[in-house]
Amino acid sequence: MISKGCEQCAKGGKMVLFVYGYCDQRDCFYCPLGENRKNVTDVYANERKVESDSDVIEEAKRMSALGTSITGGEPQEAMAKTTRYLELLKDEFGEDHHTHLYTGITGGRENMRRLSEAGLDEIRFHPPLEMWGDMHGTEWEEILHIAREEGLTPAFEIPGIRAEPEFLEFLDEGAAEFCNINEFEMSDGNYRRMQEEGFELQEGHMSAVEGSKDDAILEEMASHEKVYFCTSVFKDAAQHRNRLKRMAKNIRREFDEVTDDGTLVYGKAFADPERFEALGVPEEFYTVKSNHVEVAWWLLKEMIEDGDLDEGEIVEQYPTVDGTVVERTPVA
């Protein structure tokens, strides 16, 4: 990996902090934001909608976060919230809690100073596509030097739309520390506009765009020692899965099973709680809810096979705050 932020992300250790969905200066056709994130003044810590500062800290603790990746919209109000969250995270977890910000604007010296003083470590710039190849001598070159002068690590993070040698020039000149190239992706939020621009999905892939990982990008850019190409598969198989595993390990109950995908599996029964007590089931193997009992899945299956219970279901769910259920399997 080429940065501490990338190393932590690969381990699933980066909390994703989304601050607002408004972009005052941009309307990129490839923006992946869905309806619940685009043009909103909401904040999310991973999947958790933030209602108070304590939600941010709780989510970071839920996954034993090593650091935080901040993204979202660009209005000045978002900057104020971002600096507050940076200070909050550093106060709670200390200087070792690594933070990076992904932004589509240059921001200026005052904002770089505010971010640095609040505790930001890396800032990753995403210049507009129409500027690629013509950034030297503009505010996009100037801000790299300003950010470094203010104590930040300046870098680029761009979608893999096309190979652009100018990014490599900034790396060789020492202006930018590294460049992340994200595999070009389609989402529910950008699908129609992407098609209007002539892009299509790779055959047999859920999100990667045809041609987004072509030889030109790999040969001209990703071979550079300071460039990292982040694939869709890696994001799902490593980053997301490892983050779920960190959460699952922290919140699992004695009887929950953690899968290789980082989901939790348990049994659900609708018998009276007294039934479990009468059968001598140890307290650590089940818990009573308002209208059902959750129990070790293997024990539920065994009890049904022995005729001690009539029916139930095996539940698999994400360890996220919303507890999204992946699968329910009836057992009778």
UniProtKB/TrEMBL annotation:
GO molecular function: catalytic activity; iron-sulfur cluster binding
Coiled coil listed as a keyword: yes
InterPro entries associated with the record: DUF8061, MJ0021-like, rSAM, rSAM_sf
Pfam families for this protein: DUF8061
Coiled-coil region: 234-261
Domain DUF8061 residue range list: 262-331
Protein's name in the database: Radical SAM protein
Organism: Halorubrum ezzemoulense (Halorubrum chaoviator)
